[in-house]
Amino acid sequence: MTDGTTGGQLHAEWDRVCGRMRTEIGEAAYRSWVAPMTVRGVHDGLARISVPTRFMRDWIVAHYADRLQSLWNDEDNAVHSIEIFIQSDRPAAAADQESPSRRQATKVPAKAATTANVVDQISASLDSRFTFKNFVVDKPNEFAYAASRRIAEAQSVTFNPLFLYGGVGLGKTHLMHALAWHIRERDPSRTVIYISAEKFMYRFIRALREQNTVSFKEQFRSVDVMLIDDVQFIAGKNSTQEEFFHTFNALVDQGRQIVISADKSPSDLEGIEERLKSRLNCGLVADIHATTYELRLGILQSKAEQMSVKVATKIMEFLAHKITANVRELEGALNRVVAHSELVGRDITLETTKEVLHDLLRANDRRVTIEEIQKRVAAHFNIRMSDMHSARRARSVARPRQVAMYLAKQLTSRSLPEIGRKFGGRDHTTVMHAVRKVDELRDHDSGFAEDVELLRRMLEG
Length: 461
Ligand code: ADP
Ligand code: MG
Fold this sequence. Notes:
The protein has 461 residues and is α/β, with parallel strands linked by helices. The protein folds into four domains: 7-86, 2-Layer Sandwich (GMP Synthetase, Chain A, domain 3); 105-288, Rossmann fold (3-Layer(aba) Sandwich), CATH 3.40.50; 293-365, Helicase, Ruva Protein, domain 3 (Orthogonal Bundle), CATH 1.10.8; 370-460, DnaA protein, C-terminal DNA-binding domain (Chromosomal Replication Initiator Protein Dnaa, Chain: A, Orthogonal Bundle), CATH 1.10.1750. It has 22 helices and eight strands. Helix 11 links the parallel strand 6 (225-229) and strand 7. The chain starts with 6 loop residues before the first helix and ends with a helix. Residues 172-173, 229-230 line the site of magnesium ion.
């Protein structure tokens, strides 16, 4: 089989490698991951090992391959690398119910085989960067983080379901993956499924079409922890909701953990049936709030560290200040700035940052709303918000109103008629007049000019 190694020798070597692995990683992990491996041969120092599923291969490559290789090299220094590949040893159609003899042939313990199969068939893969360790915690997300950690570490089901909600790009998927990683790592024998609600829906519809709903349901039976991302996607899809509800109830009744995410709270989800809403509300509901400046800065620091790049504090503060929409955009901005500096071979400066991100910065600036402008201006001049819409023409309210119109023109991409509408349905010529008036006053009154400038800077954040 090998160059100079007999088949018998090979297996004796492999058995010793396995024995040492068993001592190092413990019986449960050994049975789940090492025992199912089959050595196929050694050629030119490369040992080829097959495993039955993609999920197993990925896991073994990520966690055990290096150690296996070094143990084997200790046994036989002719072996200097190993390759792990997928070979299921069974006809695809019978994948779920393998015969006892087959099972023996691939040495897959029953539970591990079902676990790996179900995970392979249903679960989307997990992003290796989305771990608890890489999640920066601060006020806006501390509750959602604590709840996720609690579920990940719990020995038994306490809150069911855990419902995480928040705006786009604020870390819901990251937390769900982190939770899944944590449980899988702690106990590989538990079946942890992560799936988007959209995928769930497609699978169900396919099962309906293929008249296969029984096996669709069966698949979910063996799941210990089920994470379903973005349930707002099944809103309004009645038959999917129905099936989701049944799967959900069945799993909860069997004491399995469920984690769900959405962009809104259960009560605010539209197009979701009342009884489903109330079930979703039954467990623990945790929201992730919009980011704060401190959180954004923390995330930038952590990201830069992960990428092993040095970015001046001044630059990070600038980004944390300017890119406020969500974390995804913030990460994207940092990546762009870093990539640019690596490509041109120059340090990151404030100038290049502004240049590289000019489109993104403009888009973020534009996110100032007319309402915010009105509120700020009203507070600054100490008038009521309602005066922004009122017909009162006294200068003490008319002037601030004109300033607000002027700033709306400067800071948003709204047209004159749109701005007019937001100020109590005024005509676009009124807005035009306000813009001219404020320009004129700024030229002649330095105190007024300073006021306007101050407001502009505050609004641009
Ligand atoms: P959502 O699912 O809520 O739309 P994601 O979980 O996909 O958002 O997060 C978007 C990006 O932002 C991901 O790359 C994620 O790693 C990152 N991210 C979000 N929140 C944090 C955080 N608190 N710490 C570190 N990275 C974060
Ligand atoms: Mg997401």
